[in-house]
Amino acid sequence: MTTETDLKVVKEIEVGRSAADAFRIFTEEITAWWPLATHSIYEEDAVTATIEPRAGGRISERTADGREADWGAVTVWDPPSRFAVTWKPNLDDDAPWTAWSVSFDVLAPDRTRVTLTHTGWEAHGDRAAEVCAQYESGWNPVLASFAAQTAP
Question: Which residues have CB under 8 Å from 76's CB, separation 6+?
């Protein structure tokens, strides 16, 4: 039997970059690869995404006309090994929060395993399994875009 607290999304990809490069591209260059038109609050109006490089830093998006929306906050900042965030990419103040982390494990000097783990689905109550399933598929194009950005 699976309960809401057992639910999690785990995605692993391998990239042809050092862990330091993969971490930098994921965090500092997020605007270059994150599919903002489909995976953001303002969608096609969003022009940048930012991860502030510190625990307590914001993860957010911005539009050309200056509107900003927070997606969450950095809870762990440990370059080039790992970072973690709280997550609520919508403008509904009452919407539940989840959390995800990304680890960067060295496989070879120019090869890194990137593992994203997304948890906290129990905050969605009766909809936990449904929302988790949406993210299970939703993370695929996001990480595919990151993999394409890291291609040597």
Answer: 55, 82, 83, 84, 101
Domains of the chain (ranges plus CATH)? 4-150 (3.30.530.20)
For the beta sheet containing 111-119, the strands, ordered from the edge strand earlier in sequence to the opposite edge, are 9-15, 111-119, 98-108, 82-87, 68-78, 58-63, 46-51
> DSSP label at 64?
T
Report the predicted TM-score, pTM, of the whole model to 2 decimal places.
Answer: 0.94
C-alpha neighbours within 13 Å on the C-beta side of residue 133? 4
Nearest by Cα to 84 from 65, 97, 68, 66:
97
Exposure of 34 in the CB half-sphere (CA atoms within 13 A): 23
Q: Where are the alpha helices (DSSP H) in 16-83?
A: 19-28, 30-33
Each residue of 1-20: pLDDT tens digit? 444 558 999 999 999 999 99
Can you list the alpha helix ranges (DSSP code H) found in the chain? 19-28, 30-33, 128-150
Q: Which residues of 78-95 are buried (b: 16+ CB within 10 A; e: fewer)?
A: eebebbbbbbbbeeeeee
